[in-house]
Amino acid sequence: MKPEKADTLIPKINTEMIKILANDGIDPIGKEMLEKAGFQVDTQNIPQEELALRLDEYDAVTVRSATKIRRELIDACPNLKLIGRGGVGMDNIDVEHARMKGITVVNTPASSSLSVAELVFAHLFGGVRFLYDANRQLPLQGATNFAGLKKKYAKGSELHGKTLGILGFGRIGREVAKLAFGAGMDVIAYDLYEFSPEVELHLANDTRVSMRVKTASKEELLRNSDFVTVHVPAQSGGLPALGKAEFDMMKDGAALVNCARGGVLDEEALIAALDSGKLSFAGLDVFDGEPTPSQKILSHPKISLSPHIGAATGEAQERIGVELANLIIDFFKK
Ligand SMILES: NC(=O)c1ccc[n+]([C@@H]2O[C@H](COP(=O)([O-])OP(=O)(O)OC[C@H]3O[C@@H](n4cnc5c(N)ncnc54)[C@H](O)[C@@H]3O)[C@@H](O)[C@H]2O)c1
Questions:
Q1: Ligand 1 mean position to 259 CA, how many Å?
Q2: Is 71 an active-site residue?
Q3: CB within 8 A of 110, min separation 6: which ones?
Q4: CA distances from 310 to 129, 187, 226, 297, 302 (A)
Q5: Of residues 70, 129, 223, 308, which has the active-site annotation?
């Protein structure tokens, strides 16, 4: 999925005075594309509390997840014509209100799917070999208790031949399935809506292989998977998609990964399932109450942690920047 580069022919449009604020940054290639098209692009971050006074001098703003574009801010900026979200989730933007005010809101939903899927596997491969704990303990005890730690982490397992349950079979879920097949896993998928079970793996030497996931009910998936990874959006009403009842259904010693959104699983119930040994480990990239996750989660010895970096790869950011730039250019060209 290589993005179109900035040096392809970008139409120069009448962009005199069109100002774009990339408040959470934009990949240099995307910025260059916009500048070549004639826009003024500011990448300095305006703090959230100053935006109400300063955002209205811009015609468009791009954000990732840090900047919040709430109703009051939208009302304070009648000059704003476009809000671009680099990434998927738009929970930081009052989308309906913006659209009601005639502001176009766009995002780049597919650009980061592969990066998120690879992070799921970072948690899974690390989890089955206890790397999340070994990386914490070796600096403390490695020089004095090497043999003890070697024994502690001696009962690892392989992913090959195990079953991965994918809850939510959208863009990221499908990428996860491809990596799982590549790792020799069986895949079961569940989604609220009907979906195609076919995925196409793009392997080295331009080899393409079509594979089918097994489809199942949510309960069957939970009961039959060695690992469950969740890829659903924030749930309406904030209800978790996974709580005690779901953890109870899972295989003893199964593991869970959440690289979707904080709130799609019940963190208290997760801690209880880990403490009781029902689940062996969890990999979390997203948390309730970000950016201040609970200390109980952060210090839990069976949780592999990453600070919401699913989309944070050079490749994904480049694709996001290019896609955003194209969306902005297309919008103002009209
Ligand atoms: N960790 C990160 O940095 C990062 C980066 C990008 C996206 N995300 C998150 O990943 C999640 C998935 O993104 P995506 O691009 O695959 O979205 P998507 O819309 O393509 O897929 C989500 C799927 O979940 C399904 N779904 C919704 N509620 C469900 C439920 N209760 N049970 C089963 N299925 C359900 C939908 O029908 C859809 O097919 C989103 O929450 C997104 O915000 C996280």
A1: 9
A2: no
A3: 171
A4: 21, 21, 22, 18, 20
A5: 308
- For residues 314, 320, 321 and 324, what is the CA-based torsion angle, rounded to 10 degrees? 180
Predicted local confidence at residue 54, as pLDDT: 97
What is the per-residue pLDDT for 10? Answer: 59
d(CA 249, CA 246) in angstroms, rounded, equals: 5
pTM of the model: 0.89
DSSP 258: E
For residue range 224-245, list pLDDT tens digits in order.
999 999 999 988 887 889 999 9
Identify the residues whose C-beta falls under 6 Å from ligand 1. 87-89, 109, 112-113, 116, 167-173, 190-193, 231-233, 235, 241, 259-261, 285-286, 308, 310-311
What tens digit of pLDDT does each residue of 16-59 get? 689 999 999 999 999 999 999 999 999 999 999 999 999 999 99
Terminal CA-to-CA distance of the chain, rounded, Å? 27
**Helix residue ranges per DSSP H, the chain:** 28-36, 51-54, 71-75, 95-100, 113-128, 131-141, 146-152, 171-182, 218-224, 244-249, 267-275, 295-298, 314-333
Q: Using the predicted structure, report yes or no on whether residue 3 has a pLDDT greater than 80.
A: no
Please tell me the distance between residue 258's alpha carbon and the centre of ligand 1 in angstroms.
11
DSSP code for 17: T
